[in-house]
Amino acid sequence: MEHAKKLNIKETSKKLLGVNPADAKLSLSYFTVAFVSLLIGGVLGLLQGLERSGIISLPSWLTYYQVLTAHGLLLLVVFSATFTIGYQYANLSHSFGGLLPKVRKLAWIGFVLMVIGTAMAATMIILNEASVLYTFYPPLAAHPLFYIGLVLVVVGIWFCCFGVFINYRHWRKNHPGQTTPILAFFAMGVFVLWFFASIGVATEVLTLIPWAMGLVETTNVMVARTLFWWFGHTLVNIWYLVAVSAWYVIVPKIIGGRHFNEKLIRLVVILLVILNIPGGFHHQIIDPAISVPIKFLHVFMSLSIAVPSLMTAFAMFAVFEKTGRKLGGKGLLGWVKKLPWGDVRFLAPMIAMLAFIPGGAGGIVNTSNQLNQVVHNTMWVVGHFHVTVGMSVVMTFFGICYWLIPHLAKRQLTPKMNKIGVIQTLIWTLGMIIMAGSMHIAGLLGDPRRTSYTTYSDHPTALSWIPYEYMFAIGATLLLIGVIIQVYAVFNMMFFAPKGHTEYPVAEPEDGAPAAPLWTERWGLWSVMLLLVVAMAYVIPIVDMIMHAPPGSPPIRTW
Amino acid sequence: MHRLEEIWLTVSCGILIIFMFIVGYQAFALEMGPPSHMETIDPQKVDQTEPFDNPGVFEIGENEYEVVMTMQTFGFTPNKIEIPVGAEVHFTLTSKDVTHGFQVAGTNINAMVMPGHIQKISHTFDEPGEYLVLCNEYCGIGHQVMATTITVK
């Protein structure tokens, strides 16, 4: 009791004094790595757009596939992971009134491991020893150091997972009978999912290392691929869950409203955590060695992830309408005008949410057996994930920067910087619409993904794709301009913006709203349910792939 | 839960369930399920294993053909296939090295072809023309030239 009182004093003093400087330094270091990665990854993205459409040809020492591997790794793994950790740890520090010193230490160890791991993998890519793309499907065999680098990145993430678990447990122990602050609850969801997701890829990579070193002769390519997607698709939903945390809790405060019913928010988090991992199978719908009934089961399992998203869609628009009406919006749609469209902290995540409408619909297409067969491995898929990741997730991340970075750096968001942010948001939106829109169409016409510039000996079908590929390049150019503005904004707010205080916008519940039920905090139970769902999804196909395995494949280098 | 929210969730989940029924009906009743062949093969002995020791186009019925094909960096064996209009073609595919993707642009033919696994997919070519066949899974430095044609006349 005495201890709890002391903690409460600490929390109140934190609210008065602002962020703990040691915690701020941790998050800002993660953001620095994130936005340096974004800049490099963005430049590589433009190079791809220009090469793909035949506008430039890359020099002999830098191939399209090297560029593509690095673009995928830097943006899908490094940028997303480091931003997520920086943001989630800031949320945790804010919710708990500072991190425990040992948790901070764990997060720093994670940081160092991830930086070393990324440097190792990136070096192998630059040396052309690892042109295996983001998915590194065996039997394509990269240099062992590439895989060791990946292991270090995963272990780094695990350190951050354990940090969150320890801090969560500590807080709960000292606040018996209380539910955790909602942002800390989200952080638990994110890191629980991350922990279980990365078990798949860690297992895969650990079997590939001795194989790539020549200690083991062959590997089971089908099992490796399945373990990859166990991780690969779940990762997408980890980013999504991170974005959703800002939609539910941050955005309502920015527009001057209250957050939605907390019980429903928590239910959405729990469902996203439990149901997610089997979604990876829809990347394998046209694979051999998985039977049609098993694939049908996975259509169901993938579609079930749509349910919490549909709940989110309703909740968010309910919050917008209620707030807009409270601010004086009249008539059927008058409330729309009352929303703060000129505030980048709202505009960016709002466009991100709107993008999730076509993004989610496209996802339902991709997960549906026969429809998947039409679009699998075409540019459609690339268009799809640039809408979902590049808009729904990344624009939410960008929007977060405009309050979180000045808050952590004890600086201000100036009206001028807000304007720059609005312009950045509009350029990014336009670039993505042009690029991802043309990618969707080109994909429906058959244009394959992950392929450098080609006309297939001037085949008329391939030539018909070229105009769309020019559109990719135009979109990619706008996007790089967007990246440069965003990176400028981030570092300006970190180091140069005027000193001052910036609010951490956390929405409150409605007046008289019931307290969140304590049963939602049963993370042990949710983890068991997650594992049950994983078992339902994976035991039969993986046992089948191992029991009926063909002779394995030796490492092969084809680049 | 709010009344409107109940309606929203009932309708949207109802749509998902109808969707499942349609996908299931197509997959099982109409046999339009995605390519999912279960047979395996030693990926290092493809040339010595039936039927891939003799790849080619074989007439197996009235205007019905089987194409036994291997994929390897960066080509298809056999390539430049010709078949008559209206032919029903059954492709039997495997890879001799890394993972490839078998796609015929302008049709619904799209299947992953992996070392160690035999993949099968069928299609009826009702329209004449020169169809572009391409590899749609990254397979190495020459991936972008891995293509051939199927001429239907």
What report would you give on this structure?
Chain B: InterPro entries: Ba3_CcO_II_C, CcO_II-like_C, Copper_CuA, Cupredoxin, NosZ/Cyto_c_oxidase_sub2. The complex is a heterodimer of chains A (559) and B (153). Chain A has 18 helices and no strands. Chain A has 559 residues and is mainly alpha-helical. Chain A has one domain (19-507, 529-547): Up-down Bundle (Cytochrome C Oxidase, Chain A), CATH 1.20.210. In chain A, helix 2 packs antiparallel against helix 3, helix 3 packs parallel to helix 5 and helix 14 packs parallel to helix 17 (466-495). Chain A is globular, with a radius of gyration of 23 Å. Chain A starts with a helix and ends in a 12-residue tail after the last helix. With 153 residues, chain B is an alpha+beta fold. Chain B is 18% helix and 39% strand. Chain B is built from 1 helix and 10 strands. Chain B has one helix spanning 3-29, and strands at residues 56-61, 64-72, 75-77, 81-83, 87-95, 100-104, 110-113, 119-125, 129-135, 147-152. Chain B is elongated and about 65 Å long. The termini of chain B are far apart. The model of chain B has no long low-confidence stretch (mean pLDDT 95). Chains A and B meet through helix 7, helix 9, helix 10 and helix 13 of A and helix 1, strand 7 and strand 9 of B.
